[in-house]
Amino acid sequence: MLRSLVAGLAARVDPQHLTFILIDFKGGAAFTTLDQLPHTIGTLSNLEPSLAFRALQALNAELKRRQQCFADAGEGIDNIDAYLATNPAEPMPRLLLVIDEFAQLAKEYPDVLSGLVSLGAVGRTLGVHMILATQRPDGVVNDDILANTNMRTALRVQSREQSSNVIGVPLAASIGREQKGRAYIKLGEEDITPIQTALVTGVSGSGCSQDLHVDPMVLGNAPEEHAIRASSGEASDMDVLIQWITEANEQLGFGSARRVWPEPLSDHVELVLEHCRPTTHREQQVASSSGSTILDVALFDDPEHQRQYVSGWRFATENLVLAGMPGSGTSSTLAALALRIADTYAPGEADIVILDVFTASLDRLEKLAHVRGYAGPGSTNESRQLQKRVLRYIAAELERRSARPHDAFPPLFVLVDGFATLREGYSDVADTPLLESFYQAWAKGPAMGIHCVATTTRLKALPPAISDLTGQKWLYQLADTSEYHPTVDKDNHPANLPGRFVSTSRAHHGHVGLPDDIDAAVTAINEFWGIDGLTPLVQEFPKRVGPEQVAGYLASGNEAWQIPVGINEADLTPYVLEAFAGEHVLVSGPARSGKSTMLAAIHQMLVQQSPNTKILVGAPRRSPLCQMLPGVMSPEQLVDVVETQSAAPEPCIVMIDDAHLVADESQVLARVLTLPDTPLMFIVAGRNNDLRTLYSHWTGQIRKSRLGVLLVPDADYDGDLLGVRLPRHPAATMSEARGYGCQNGAATLIQGVTVSTEGHR
């Protein structure tokens, strides 16, 4: 009956005077092919709460639009007939909402049905009308529906009560099973009439018979059936009628009717990048159009204004939180933001640092020329060390920019994937300052050009320092739906699609655009700018440091020597020991820890940077130094030369490897080391376990300076060699030439300077 009614109306009235919105809760089967009518401007099937909520918003917006049109048309225009009498320039067709199986709608989404009924009541004078249909009227045909439906039709129903619920009398229950299409129509309290409805889904046939069959128009028993069954693939009467209606409207020049709402957001939206040509073109796209303070990455749905628009992260005003379960699209959103930044700014005009601590889903972005620092996931020392370095860089950059408020800095975009993971991984007391510094950057950064965006699986994992200061939140599919409250209505939750979210600022749904191939987009953007990559702002802690990297920091003066011995883990700057007159340097470590190669590196820097300084080198025969440097003396030879040199006025550097094996039976070394104004500075290396047990050894005088390097140390005991306390859990895994530079009672994690053992002689 519904199909016949809709098709019949479409055949008699053009789409400039009548349009349909078809709502079928049973999956859309009731209105198959009717959506092809030029009159049909919207369909809804298998309702999701968000789609129903969207429809209500758009329909309410349509009522407001019509009311405004009436007001603009002049005084006294308060209904559609009066408005149409003014011959408006733009057609305003009547809008008919056809809702099949509203009982199911009432059961699952009663608020939606109530909203539709209220809308129909208000909308009649505005030209908005409604047809409700159901097979099960029990308990759903309430007073509101009865009050707002002045025409009611009951076909054959199962019980007298069902008939009475609809038309007020039990007559429809007496309709026989064979009386298909028989119904009772109620137009008033006493105006109830039996009718026979038409069938439009049958097949009239195409035979040439001229016989005319006439049935008596007496509504008694069912008339004899004469319908012709459709053969396979043959069009039904409704199919033919729809085709004729469509062709007739085209011939008459009727354009498409104005839609109440745009098409729903697509499952896939294309991110259009200026410097990357897409391989395919999707119907829904996101191109950059909002200006320099918004990163356009999403297509938004605005049913209240019956439109869709492109927008994104308003980074100039505040930071952004992306909350959603794994797979909901939060990480992809970070990728889209990074690509938009790189497509908009030249390398150097904007910098990106990435804390990819969740699933390494952003590792492909590390190749972007704009990415100046990347730290991946993991709990190993190396992973955490790089993560900490990124956090320290952010804090240092905030401090630098705060100290120079009038200087212009390029925007720094900080992308954090997995904030909950980051927070849990740095919950120890020792790591608290790092998180606190990040919270400071989150709070103060936007004013300084530092813009942060972070993903989280749970909003509750955000501390107030983040959550309370963030007005821009995009909520994707959340495991705990209570986290949508109170900013998002319970019927406005986003669909369970990767990339679909609802913005808390406007409660608009959005879908993030992505290119077809992220790797190809990265390559294309880099090729356009012609830059493979700038010097990283955040670098990994090196596993080897050569003399050429730190030699420029070596200096000798009247009061002290500046001796670079490696790279500081905290900021990757050269670590320099300052040795005043009478102070000496100790390098300790176990076998193959890099002691000998460090002495060789220091020797090389001294020769290059201070060529006039006399250097004496001694070591036992088995020391690697004997193979790496020329003129290495035996311990006995060295003792004799040191005794002579101690009386000379010019400065002299004495380098001794494997010092724990040098006995100093003559006590020359011990005596020279106690001279108050000795021109000699000793730089010696020895094995840590042995040095700790040589209580009366001459190296005890070296240790008193509390100056040197502890390579691959024993955290429990080696600190005593230089009077420092070593951390039990170093920030980086210990390896060759890695350890602690020690001076003034402080231990600093460094990668020590060394030379390669190959090619040195």
UniProtKB/TrEMBL annotation:
**SUPFAM superfamilies xref list:** P-loop containing nucleoside triphosphate hydrolases
Taxonomic superkingdom = Bacteria
Domain spans labelled FtsK = 1-164, 307-485
UniProt cross-references to InterPro entries, sorted A to Z:
AAA+_ATPase, FtsK/SpoIIIE/SftA, FtsK_dom, P-loop_NTPase
A single Gene Ontology molecular function, please?
Answer: DNA binding
Which keywords does UniProt give here?
A: ATP-binding, Nucleotide-binding
One Pfam family assigned to this protein is FtsK_SpoIIIE
PROSITE patterns for the chain:
FTSK (PS50901)
- Name of this protein: FtsK domain-containing protein
